Amino acid sequence: MAQDRRVAYEEEQKKIRLDKAVETDRIRARQERAIDMREVQDALRAKRAQEQTEREWRKREEMKAVQKAQNEQLLKRARIRQQEQKVHLLAIEAQKDRADFERMLLLVSSSPHHIG
Questions:
Q1: What would the pLDDT profile of 36-49 be if each residue is shown by its tens digit?
Q2: What angle do CA 70, 77, 58 make, to 5 degrees?
Q3: How many domains does the chain have?
Q4: Predicted model pTM
């Protein structure tokens, strides 16, 4: 009878140890899944952050390219305007020189000392 009780007690202890081991395994598996999920979420966050950084970089590069193109266009227009002004001033100067020449010619031809 004492032997039966002892066997029953040992079996009960064995069952308790087995239940604890099963519960420990279940808890460990749940923790590992949680860790895995956090790692996946961290990786996803990192990927999204990297993509955002790349988008911002591309946008900055695009803005720089647009600004450069605008500056080049402004410079080109300024050069054209400068060239047009130069041509205009040369035309005015040539017209003035021609008028001076014609006035001198008129003076010389109307002068009493003119041989002709």
A1: 999 999 999 999 99
A2: 10
A3: 1
A4: 0.53
